[in-house]
Amino acid sequence: MENIALHTGTTHPDLLWILVPAFLSFVAGLGVAAYADRLRAWFRPANATTSD
User: Which residue ranges does UniProt annotate as crossing the membrane (predicted)?
Assistant: First the structure.
């Protein structure tokens, strides 16, 4: 059972280089999702038709 705890990767030397970009991209995705309607309105002209 102790082997499972040893192989979880929590002592990986580059763990911080993996977790920080993953967390930042997650937060960026949340930000894009929160402002998706505003971004769509900004990129799409007001008189454009949608295919929805």
Answer: 15-36
Determine the Cα–Cα distance for residues 12 and 15; give it in Å rounded to an integer.
5
Query: Read out DSSP for 6-20?
Result: HTSSTT-TTHHHHHH
Q: Are 15 and 9 in contact (CB under 8 A)?
A: yes
Structure token pair of residue 5: 């705890």
Cα–Cα distance for residue pair 39/1, rounded to 1 Å:
49
pTM: 0.55
Q: Which pLDDT belongs to residue 1?
A: 47
